[in-house]
Amino acid sequence: MAIVLVAAGAARADAVKCRAAIIKSTAAFVQARAKALQSCEQAKLGGKLALGIVCTAEPKTSARLAKAREKLATGIAKACGGDDKTCGTGGDDDLAAIGWNVGTCPDFETGDCTNPITTCADIPTCLACVNEGTVDQAIGLYYGALTPTDPKTKDKTEKALRKCQAAIGKATTAFFAGKSKTLAKCWSAVNKAGSGACPDAAASAAIDAARAKQAATVRKACAGLDKAPGTADDFGPAAVGFPAACQDVAPVGAASCGGAVATLTDLVACVDCVTRFSVDCADRVAVPAFVATYADECNPPGVIRRECKAQRVVHIVGGNGSLGWFTQMWPLPTVVSNFNPTYAFDDPAKVEPVPGTPAGHPLFARLSGNRRLFEGLGTAPDPTVFVAGTNQTHNASPTTTTLAGGPEVVAAGAALQGDLATGVPVISFGALPFGPAPGAPAATVVADVEAAIAALKAATTITPATEQALRPSSAQLAALGITPGSFALATTLASRLLFAANAFRLGLVGTVVMPGFNDDPHNAFDDFFGTYTPKMTATLQILDGFYAELAKSTEPKCGQDGVPPSLADNTVLVVTGDTFKHPFERLGWSDSTPGNANLLYVRSNGFLRPGWFGFLIPVQPGRIDFDPVTGDLVGVVGPETRDAASASARLATLFAITRGNAAVVAGASSAPYGAAINP
To answer: Cβ distance 113 to 126 under 8 Å?
Structure first.
């Protein structure tokens, strides 16, 4: 009997020690991640790091985050992993004894934190996943949309605004870390006693004091030049660059944070409320032995609260002149309005003007039956067409999306897609333009759809059912007009686009880059029925069918104001190429272009104004650039106007991919780009 009692006492002691380590290690991880990200964001505010840097990918910050995750795992293993201090090798503390017989990780805001819990090795995986979500949500609120300011400014108002922005992040992160530390201390005492609840009276008092200090600090720092809170020159949410509505989340047992953020008082209340929510969820997930259930507030059934930071992207690189096929979908306005049979277009009756385009920026879209291409497939489906870049005939890697002396904008956007892809961030069908850009993931280059599926299987767990769901079905292909008799280039393009749609629906990939037909279609109009008609029709059906497929599903990883958009409304289409071929030369469809121009097509889903920006005409100078601020056509064209318009187009594309994140765009370049931004 004595031996049994001794063994039982030892087991209980081991469980207490294990739970204590989980509580302590989790709090340390949460605080370390918050402080590392806050330090990086402060460095961006101070001009020590570029505004466009994604902190989770910044080398020093990334190393700090990795170290914190490693310490979380080792801290738990040493206390819970038995005599060898290694989880999963036998002799681990019993999951039921430590309260972790929960089956699977309880998740956070319908994310991906659902790993099975079978040994203590699975506990830090769960805790890291959930708390990366809680911390990143809070830090994202403090810093995610701040109005860009000049760290070297001598303007008193701008300097005061920067001080306000810095105080919001610094003071609220301190409250975040302080509340986490206080709750960990409380739960440690409960664990030692064997029962209890947190926060107790002492913890509540400490948390209330920290809340008051945070609120006072922010009010004082954001009180404007008169330094008197509550007066007209306070820095309100619009000046700071803060969301107009607080997130619809709720601290455990409290009212929702949701509501308008119109004043400094509203801003202070919002950061306080969301911070309490984030810490509550970080806290509760670590102590399943002492809470009956994981709070519904942290993972409400069927609700996606994680806000989308970026859109998904498909970039079609129409090399070897195949960009020209897209001018048959959305033709030059001049070609339609002043049609001449010698122009490289079939029939103006086959297109229809898109209603609602801004004055001076017409757009014609090809008809598919009685509806325009993309009509009804998304809330704002019509593209923006930029006259941007230069003709790069027979260049396999055209640089239309690369800023002079700066990043490639599709890759810069992919740096913000971390929440969208749990498999492979970027897949490129062949070595195509992607990057470089700070913080961007590397593209995984594959040859075909089967190789893309194999890459996903190598990167993450893919069940047979998921593998089948990734592979385009015959029904899906038929909906895009593909039959056994379709020409090979059409079948390949349709298959790759359908793979992208399937991978997006499953939340496995953020960006897919692929070639167009790459067919050098000089003779398209010479062989009208044998070449032009089938390829034009295929382009139309494939593009329209792709977005029809996207429109069937909602975004699986994030929401917009708490509601997941359709994938059609969260997938940007970027189309570039080496040359779009001469629109005014039907015979032989020349590789030359008016004014040596190039084109950039962007379906932005409402972030940009639809229509043509820039103009092409059949006489000299051929190319007329647009003003990067107003969008108006410039009177005199030259290298300077070309470069300014091209930079504006590229930055506008990045603005669309990042869902209007002006800070990220400012970090990529200081060039103006407001011409096409949808107000």
So the answer is: yes
